[in-house]
Every structure is written in structure tokens, then in C-alpha cells.
Amino acid sequence: MEETKIIKKYEKVLAACPLLMGIPASQYEEALTFLHAKAVHLKKHEILQQLDEPFRYAGIVLSGSIEGSFINENDAKISINRFDAGKLYGEALGCVQPPHSPIQLEALRDSIVLLVDLSAMHQEKAALTGIQYHLAMNLIHGLARQNIYQNYKVRILSQKKLRDRIGIFLGGLPHAKDGSVLVKLTTTAMAEFLGVNRSALSRELGLMQDEGLLRIEGRRFFLKHD
């Protein structure tokens, strides 16, 4: 069975997945079998989930990177998030399984994803026990974290000024001891996340540096605080 081999091969990656937190590696196969896990191999830029098509499965990224996005009223792509190895995506949608997906999922490079059916947890007639209960608790915590993240994203996009969007975005990232934050996104990806075009973002970042409000060293950003 391909999934069994893949689970063993990517044990260390699965250990980083929030859905499997606290579950011994020896029980990964049992847990993922319960969730009807299925591995899919994607080429760069291959679409995993189309907009408006039924959303059936959440996914654990084993290798590569997956981007979630939607199209706004101006037909521009707005990036919601990107998911690298060890990340779980689509928790809420995977539970509800809407007939029309509000997001598109695209492989940013060659990727392997383990699709999981989260509806298995609320289709069980008997009370969840053991691993099933552990999965359910991890899912609840994951949904709570996702809610916090979405509030952060809404707060960013609700700002009219790009400078304010940049400030909230950088302020929400983990700060190093020297006060800097590491931005892993490319300028294009960061612009999509902030809901603006790349030129506007580059121009604003340049102005903020000229005014002494920001210093950029590679992918590290230093914000001046009053």
C-alpha cells in the first residue's frame, strides 16, 4: 500500500503536523487509516483544489509547498496562506465539506500531500476513544489557531493604507532578540497576502526605508517603534 510506505518515509514530517501532536509514530498509520488518508503527487503549479468545486479533504503537506488563494471582485488573486512540509490545511472546510470551495489550492513546486477525511470524526456513532479522541482534540485546537490567524488577516485587509497593512503584518510575525522579523515570503507573495500589487508594495517599502521607519536586510525587517 503506497500510503503505508509514505507514512513510514515521512514520519519526521508527520511528527510536526498539529493534527498528530502527541500521537506516537507507531500509531500514525492507525490514525491516518481512520481518516481514510490518501497520498497525491503534484507537479509545480498543478491545482489541487479548484474554486467552486466540492471541498472534501483537508491535507497534510509532506513535501513541497501548497498555496491557498481566492479571486477578488477585480479578478486579482489574493493569497490566503501557504503551507509547507508538516503543515495541515483546510481544517474547517474539511469538517464542513462545502459543495462550492471558496479557495483554490495550488502546488508552488513539486509536492506530496496526504489527503485526510475529517468528517470521519463526526460520522462515528460511538464515542471517540483513544487515537480518535486525540485527533479530535488536536483538530479543535487547530481550528482555534486558524480562527486567530483569520482575524489577523481580516485586520490587515481592513486597513485602507498600505503602510498600516505592512505594519500589522510585520507586527504579527515572531520577533527575534534583535527586534527583527523574518519574512519568508517573496515580495510577490507578500504583495498577494496584503492584497496589493508588487510595484505598490516595493514602492511603499522603499518610502518607509527612506523615512527611517523600516530597515530591510535580506529577508529580515526591522521596524522602528515610537
Q: Widest sheet: strand order?
A: 1-8-3-6
Q: What's the mean pLDDT score?
A: 88
Subunit arrangement of the protein: single chain
SS elements, strand count: 11
Main sheet properties: 4 strands, antiparallel
Fraction in helix: 25-40%
What's the total helix number? Answer: 9
Shape: globular
Strand portion, in percent?
Answer: 15-25%
Low-confidence spans = none
Q: Would you list the SSEs in sequence order as H and E?
A: HHHEEEEEEHEEHHHEHHEE
Span of the ends, CA to CA:
59 Å
Supply the helix-strand structural class. alpha+beta
Rg from Cα: 19 Å
Detailed description of the structure:
- The chain contains 9 helices and 11 strands.
- The chain has helices spanning about 1-10, 10-15, 30-35, 90-95, 120-125, 130-155, 160-170, 185-195, 200-210, and strands spanning about 40, 45-50, 60-65, 65-70, 75-85, 90, 105, 110-115, 180, 215, 220-225.
- It has a 4-stranded antiparallel sheet. The protein has a 4-stranded antiparallel sheet with strand order 2-7-4-5.
- Strand 10 and strand 11 form a beta hairpin.
- Helix 6 (about 130-155) packs antiparallel against helix 7 (about 160-170) and helix 8 packs across helix 9 (about 200-210).
- The longest helix has 28 residues, at about 130-155.
- The protein is globular and about 60 Å long.
- The N and C termini lie far apart (about 60 Å).
